[in-house]
Structure formats: structure tokens, C-alpha cells
Here is the input.
Amino acid sequence: MSPLIFLLAAACGGLGAAVRYLVDVGVARVAGTRFPWGVMAINITGSFLLGVVIGMLPDAAFIVGAGFLGGYTTFSTAMVDTVSLWRDGERRASVFNAVGMLVLALAAAAAGLALAS
Amino acid sequence: MTQVTAPLPPRTALRRAALAGFGGMIGTAARLGLGMLIPDAAIAVLIANLAGALILGILTARLPASDLRVFLGTGVLGGFTTYSAFAVDAVQLWGASALLSFGYLAGSLIGGLLAAIIGLHLGAALGRAAHARRAS
Here is the structure.
């Protein structure tokens, strides 16, 4: 891989992270609850879009998939949020944030892949 | 987690979006670099996700909501870890071996939660140690 492609993918990951921050802040303001709906929505939509990109645009998978969508979605925040909710006694919200997100993201990824095939 | 407090002033939100973007570029480059070192893409993502959850746990316990935490947490670690590749890899693995896919999912989720718990405890312990040093 050329260094240019690598840098482009990394820059797209940065763009994805900036979009994630703005979506997260925007959703938190609209939803007005403590539950991290923003990250939930980001990880589900990102999983769907990665399925579509891998299926339909394999040539763009590195820059758009691993780069932009990799930076847009996040695993670490989902894990720390789940533990924080549990510690604060919001057990059902915590389980939903872990298992609900997983099931919905898998369904979204499968749907994205199926759409392309 | 995004704190539900007074809305951020637009300038603060835009500055932090730029910081998240800059950090996300660094984190994404590190994840892509790791992917080149480790031939199995799913294993590379698993390692990035577990390491990222551990370090974000430490940061969350140590740093207040601030520009630095947005840069390091939302940006660098958010970009280093990824959910989309994890979900798509698991679905594609399912086609090859349901058992392997289930193991990958369970290992990521249980490992990720354990990493976050350990990180949060470690961060709190580091905070107490720093506090004790300052007090003595």
C-alpha cells in the first residue's frame, strides 16, 4: 500500500471521529437523557454502512471502511459507558447498551452485506 | 459518556470536534498500522478494541471532561477502536464457522467489559496514589 493511501485512510478516520463527536453531542442534546443514544446510533449505522461498502465498493473498503467508518464507530466508549451505567445502578440500560447494541449492530452489518449481494 | 449538562457553546463544540478529528486520525493510523503487523484482520481489531477499552477506562477515571479527554478519549482511542469492523467480521466469520464467530463475539464483549472495569479501577488507584504523593 502506498503511504498516500495510508495517510488518506487515517485522515478519513479523523473525519469520522469528528463526525462521531458532533453526532454524540447533538443526540445527547436532543434526547436529553443520560443514556448514550448517540454512540448506539453511530455504531449501528456504521456497521450497516461497512457491510454495504465491503459488498458494493471493495476498492474503497480501506479508505472508507477501515478509515472513515473505523474512526466513526467506537468500541472503547461503548464498553466504558456500559460499565459506568452498571455502576450507577442503571442495570437494564447497561445490559441494553452492551447486548442490545451488539445484536442491532450485527443485524445492521448482515443487512448491509446482504444488500450488496 | 456524554454528560447531560448545559449545552456547550458552539465554539467549544467545534474546537472539540477538531480535537476529536485530530486524535481520531492518530488513533486510526495506529489501528491501520496494527492491522499491517498482524495478518489476521479480526485478531488485530480484537487487540485494538481490548487495549483501547482498558486505556479509555484509565482516562475516564483520571481526566475530567475536558479538551484533553476529548482529544485522547473520543479522538485517539475512539479512532483506535472500532465497532463496524468488529460487527462485519463477526457476521462474515459466521458464514465460515458459527462457533468461531460466537467465540469472537463473546471474547470481544466479555474481554472489552473486563478491560474497561480494570482500566477504571487502575485509573482510580493511580489517582489515589497521585493524591497521596501530593498530600505527603
Summary: The CA atoms of residues 83 and 94 of chain A lie 7 Å apart.
